[in-house]
Structures are given as C-alpha cells and as structure tokens.
Amino acid sequence: MIIADARAVYSPEGPFKLTIIERRDLEPHDVLIEIKYAGVCHSDIHTARGDWGPVNYPLVPGHEIAGIVIRVGSEVTKFTVGDRVGVGCMVDSCGECDNCHKGEEQYCLNGMTGTYAAIDRYGQFTQGGYSTHIVVTEDFVLRIPDGIELDVAAPLLCAGITTYSPLRHWEAAPGKRIAVVGLGGLGHMAVKLAHAMGAEVTVLSQTLKKKEDGLGLGADHYYATSDPETFKQLAGSFDLIVNTVSAKIDISAYLSLLATDGTLVNVGAPAEPLSVNVFSLILDRRSFAGSMIGGIRETQEMLDFCAEHRIAPEIEVISANQIDEAWERVLASDVRYRFVIDISTMGNE
Ligand code: NAP
Ligand code: ZN
C-alpha cells in the first residue's frame, strides 16, 4: 500500500482538511507519480458541492495533474522513472468498446473511470490530484513535452483538452468566426487555442473588466453580454460558439448569434438544465452540441500542439492552505485564469 498526503472535503461546504489516503500497490502496467502541481477546475467544485448528484465524502478532487514518475510496474513500456507526466480527468476505460478502439475513451460505452469520485476496476473509490501521489495505468498517463513547465502543464490536462477537442472537431481554422463565452479557466484556453488555429476569435464575457487580458490572450474582439446591444450587434455572426459558462445562461439568446449552419457547443456543465427555444435552431439550421474532455491520443496531440505553439495557461500558484479561498474566487468569476496548487505545500499545517 502506498500512502499519500491529500486535501479532502467532508461536506458540500468544505473546508478542506489535510488527510492521508491509500494508493494501490503497482499492478504490472501501473506507474506511481509524485504529483508536483494540480489545477483547480470548476468541475471539482460542482462535484464536491453535489451540483451533479450525490457525493461520497471524503472527496479528494483534482484532475489536472502534473508530476514525475517515481516507480513503474513490471510490464510498463511507455514510461520510466524520472519522466515528466500528466493525468487528466480519466484513469481507465474498458479498452474494448468501439469508442475506446477509436481513441475516444472519454465516451467509453462501458463508462470511463473518472480520476476522482468514481469506482475503479478494483472496486476502489478513486481520489484525485489534490494529493502527493497517484497510481495510474500507463495508457492513461500523458507525456509532458520538454518545452512546458509542470505548473502550467497541469491545467492543460482538463481545461486544455476540453477546449482543444471541440475546436478540432468543429474545425477551427483561418476564416472561421468563433466566439468563446466565459473567460475563465476553460475560456481563456479556448481563446489561446482557437487563435493559434488561425480562427477569428471573439470573447463574450459578462463585463468588459477583462477586455485587455482577453485581447492579450489572442482574441480579436471582446463584448459584454450584460449589454443587450451585444446580442443585436452580433446576431448571426459566428460559425462556432464554445460556451464554457459554469452557470445557467439564456442559451437561445446565444444561439441567435450563430450564422446559418453554425454550432454552439456546450462544455460548461451547470447544475441546472438549459432550455432552448427551438426557433433559434430551426430558423438557420443551427446545432446545439456538447463535448466532454478528449481522448488520450488527442490529449497528447494537444500537449504537443501547445509545446509547438508555445501556448500555456495563465496561472496563479497557490499553497494547499489556500484551496478554500481559491474555490470562493472561482465561484465569484475572480480567477485569472487558473489556480494551480503547489503540491510541495500539501503537508503544511
Ligand atoms: P471558471 O474558471 O469558473 O470559468 C467559468 C466562466 O464562466 C467565468 O469565468 C465567467 O466568465 C463565466 N460565468 C460564471 N458564472 C456566470 C454566470 N452566472 N453568467 C454568465 N457567465 C458566468 O470555470 P472552468 O473551470 O473554466 O469550467 C467551466 C465549466 O466547464 C464548468 O461548468 C465545468 O464543470 C465545465 N467543464 C466541463 C468539461 C467538459 O468535459 N465538458 C471539462 C471541464 C470543465 P466571465 O467572467 O468572463 O463572464
Ligand atoms: Zn476539469
């Protein structure tokens, strides 16, 4: 048994407490990772607060993990001790269904295993990256390219891939007009990635407070959605809208901003259902879609793309004692643009 220090919540209100968790002994294909940094994703908060359903406490969140391999199982072929690696939102899948064969393990027909709050193939409750060590089967471990430091690598494992995948699927490229709704963790990565893919990028944020930042990240235009004029001015003007908002918004109003045949893809996962006025779809043959993270192969492709294009998230590194405060700031849309926990502070009182 491997023991790790971790931070867990014991109720929806928190707060985080220092605890110890057990990681399984290495199976032949497992690697043991010493975690160096873990990103704070809004999904951690949704999960812990029960937005998506009942929670098994104590819960150790964290699915944006970057660290170093410190031990490998007897049959591991892809990694050796010392490798710089990452783990995202999944730690396993069946490996046998059509979607796994296609490399889309996130849509595993038998259900992928989440990095936390899931039951793994050993019958154990998974616990995430707000901890010092994790054991993961090698097929779900990503290689972090040399050009990317571990602190900025962490958010790529969820915020990066969750925005990269739909941008690729709906073919972000020069000539495409793309809007990103919400300039938080996912949103700021969507802006950087869509810009690097050559698209014309517009940010739709609640206010103009972050306009200068947004333009600096690569956006061509920036509008406040609190201003009703925005919806009049931009009607019918986007090929793709990526909605990263963590709360319920008037989705029909945003659909009206799509051009004919345009798609609005929701990656934001609010607790409440979104309602759609079908006329906002029918009138211009528009689509309303969703997308969940990305497969392992595509996640590696995204990491390599970021290294090649020198793309990294904007981060604020925090200590383990600051997680509660950071969560409150995320909930208040006061994050620029991802909190990343320095795991070396995990044991601090
Ligand atoms: P985040 O950093 O909190 O960003 C969300 C942004 O949405 C905020 O910065 C804010 O942007 C905007 N926003 C928040 N509340 C709003 C409201 N009431 N009305 C309008 N806009 C609002 O969160 P994140 O970590 O990027 O995650 C975003 C969402 O994606 C979450 O629901 C998360 O669970 C989900 N997610 C989904 C996947 C997937 O696979 N589909 C993966 C990861 C995360 P402005 O200040 O610019 O308005
Ligand atoms: Zn996430």
Automatic annotation (TrEMBL):
Q: Which SUPFAM superfamilies match?
A: GroES-like (SSF50129), NAD(P)-binding Rossmann-fold domains (SSF51735)
Q: Which InterPro entries match?
A: ADH-like_C, ADH-like_N, ADH_Zn_CS, CAD-like, ER, GroES-like_sf, NAD(P)-bd_dom_sf
Record key words, sorted: Metal-binding, Oxidoreductase, Zinc
Q: Which CDD domains match?
A: CAD1 (cd05283)
Cofactor(s) recorded in Swiss-Prot or TrEMBL: Zn(2+)
The Enoyl reductase (ER) domain is annotated at 14-341
Tell me the Gene3D superfamilies matching this sequence: Medium-chain alcohol dehydrogenases, catalytic domain, NAD(P)-binding Rossmann-like Domain
Pfam families linked: ADH_N (PF08240), ADH_zinc_N (PF00107)
- Cell inner membrane is among the record's keywords: no
MF terms in GO? alcohol dehydrogenase (NADP+) activity; zinc ion binding
PANTHER family from the entry?
ALDEHYDE REDUCTASE
Family per similarity comment: Belongs to the zinc-containing alcohol dehydrogenase family.
Name of the featured protein: NAD(P)-dependent alcohol dehydrogenase
Instruction: Please give the organism.
Output: Paenibacillus rhizophilus
